[in-house]
Amino acid sequence: MKTLVKIAFKNLNRQKKRSFLLGGAIAFGIMVVTIINGFAGAFAKNIAGNMADLFAGHVFVEGVEKSAKGKPVEVIRDATVLNEALAASRVDSRLVQKRSAADATLVFEGKKANQSIWGADFANESYLKRRLVLKEGSYDDLLAPNSLVLSEKVARKLKAELGDKVLVQLKTVSGQNNVGEFTLRGITHDMGLFSNMLAYASRDDLNSLLALGPEEFQLYGIMLDDLSKAEPARDALVAALKARAQVFELSAAEVSPSGAAGMQSRYYKLNRLAKKESWEGAKYRVFTINDMISQVEELVKVLNSASLVILAVLFVIIMVGISNTFRMVMYERIREIGTMRALGMQRPSVKRLFLLEAGFLATGGTLAGLAAAGLVMLILSLFDFGTGTFFSLLMRNGHLTFAVGPVQAALNFVIVLALTLLAAYLPARKASRLEPAVALRSTK
Amino acid sequence: MVIVELSDVRKVYPLGKVEVEAVKGVSFAIEKGDFISIAGPSGSGKTTILNMIGCVDRPTSGIVTIAGTPTKDLKDKDLTTLRHDTLGFIFQTFNLVPVLNVRENVEFPLLLGKERGSKKEREEWIDYLIEEVGLTQWAKHRPNELSGGQRQRVAIARALVGKPQIVLADEPTANLDSKTGEQILELMKKINREMETTFIFSTHDARIVNIADHVIRLQDGLVVENVRKGEDAIAATAAEAAEAGQGGRS
């Protein structure tokens, strides 16, 4: 076997140009697919990471009560039970944020815009202070009463400028219409579709408009060290909270159902439970940032599937080349095959010799493709695309990032190896079946 | 002791829609330790007979017996094993593996079968053969860095490395100049004497015919002469063979 390996490896050097072209074709295919995989891999992480920054947490708790009319009211009146459960869960939290939220209509000089507004604790949310990049205004100005931060897009739509008074119309938690006046003290960069997530007001001011008490809030956000810890932290928190309060829980069938329901996010399913179920007092739902954006995960799956299809199509084309080349190689080396057979090489060894050569080609091509993909991804990640666009949500601090898992890379390699061996198999089999006398008689 | 025996061997090749009878019922025997020349003009059936003795081709009819084993019903795997264990090959065009150096080429047949002897013994044997063929200085060189004579010496060492009972040489001097050809023949004769290896040549080189101790002449697929030096002719003439419906029998 060692001899076969040696000959197969050396055979690749006999026609350097041809080996280079074939290996190059494999490398190109692997490079394209690896870059797509890398982008898709980081895509979900970046969106989740950036969303975690916007929502100020990786794991969240919402409290729900039933109103007198049986409608769910989202409110957490006391954080004590949540703080105790968090401590008991031993979740390693970096910080905890309490926020309110409202879907509001903003009105300024006859112009209107629908906008989600976060009620944040400007004075104490050091994390928000670090992450909120203002195009106009300063963070310290936000500490003044009734301050409002809007995205550039929404401010432009309202034609509002810093210092302008904007009316905020919303429904209180109990469903009453209410209106308040806020002063525009900060404008953030435009974030396209996600601009409606970038409106902030003081939590106290928003609470007052929502008819919530000063200590009440709606979202308990827990920031962890790492996004990858979100799901274990969620499960630990649910376990700890169940011992102290009522918690919404999905059955195993609801967590991973088949069919169309499989596309619904965990967060959506938890919300639906609040509408269906009856209870008294506060009941909590615990979810992660990934639960909220599970559609992104679906998108990643689609991207990865598409990349596999691209890989397959590319390699069907490359396979034709490999198959033809190995057929040619067989005719070029026909006397050599005859000699080896005459000297005592068995048929399976002849086949193995060809397949080993194909295997080396696939391995070399894959390694070169991975190296090229690494280089391209490194170069792309050096460019600063800025943070002021919608696309920055797909990046990390304005830089493209890529994440290729070893399993994905190994899977691509296995596919390439299998297809290359398949392409070389028929010529290899034909070579092994050559009669030694016929091969030795050949004048090629 | 008879080491190769052909009995009424025929070989027919299809050539398009017609069939060409390359060997027309040949019978002869070769003794162990013979230095035998199968001579004859082009198309007389020399290489076909050599291929059948070498088990790289099968007769259309008749029996070929190599070292006591009739090859007729052997499967490809067994024929390959028989070739590996019993036969050595020297080709007109050397047929060395181009990506292997001299030492690796000589060693190659040993790596194809079951291991015989210790690694040290094998290495000493390879070194001895390379020295015997005068290529110690060239052991690390690849075939394309060698002259024709040197390549044929590598082929000789390769043919002998498995200590075969029989070495088949198909026109071994045809691609060599006369001086190199003579050196190669001397080397093979020396090995024949020292190792008692049976050498079977197909050739039209008169020098080989002259130094051979057994000559079989072919014409049109028939044995026309079968002579051992110092003995009377032991073959039937082509005419007699044709009358008998078979080739000359030793």
Morphology call of chain A: elongated
Remind me, CATH topology of chain B? Answer: Rossmann fold
Largest interface: A-B, 25 and 27 residues
**Helix content range of chain A:** 40-55%
Order of helices and strands of chain B: EEEHEEHEHHHEHEHEEH
Mean pLDDT of chain B: 85
- Taken as a percent bin, the fraction of beta residues of chain A is 15-25%
Name given to the CATH architecture of chain B: 3-Layer(aba) Sandwich
Write down the overall mean pLDDT of chain A.
Answer: 86
Number of helices of chain A: 15
Q: Kindly report the spatial arrangement of strands forming the biggest sheet of chain A.
A: 3-4-9-6-8-7
Number of helices of chain B: 8
Radius of gyration of chain B, Cα only, in angstroms? 18 Å
End-to-end distance of chain A, in Å? 27 Å
Oligomer: heterodimer
Question: How would you summarize the topology of this molecule?
Answer:
The complex is a heterodimer of chains A (444) and B (250).
Chain A: H1 2-11, H2 16-55, E1 59-66, E2 72-74, H3 80-89, E3 93-108, E4 111-120, H4 126-131, E5 134-136, E6 147-151, H5 152-158, E7 165-171, E8 177-188, E9 200-202, H6 203-210, E10 219-224, H7 230-242, E11 246-247, H8 252-255, H9 266-276, E12 283-288, H10 289-292, H11 294-332, H12 334-343, H13 347-382, H14 406-432, H15 436-441
Parallel strand pairs in A: 4-9, 6-8, 11-12
Antiparallel strand pairs in A: 1-2, 1-10, 1-12, 3-4, 3-7, 3-10, 5-8, 6-9, 7-8
Helix pairs in contact in A: 1-13, 2-11, 2-13, 2-14, 3-7, 11-14, 13-14
Chain B: E1 2-15, E2 18-31, E3 35-39, H1 46-53, E4 61-66, E5 69-70, H2 76-86, E6 87-90, H3 102-107, H4 119-132, H5 148-160, E7 166-170, H6 178-195, E8 198-203, H7 206-211, E9 214-219, E10 222-228, H8 238-244
Parallel strand pairs in B: 3-8, 3-9, 6-7, 7-8
Antiparallel strand pairs in B: 1-2, 1-4, 4-5, 9-10
Helix pairs in contact in B: 4-5, 5-6
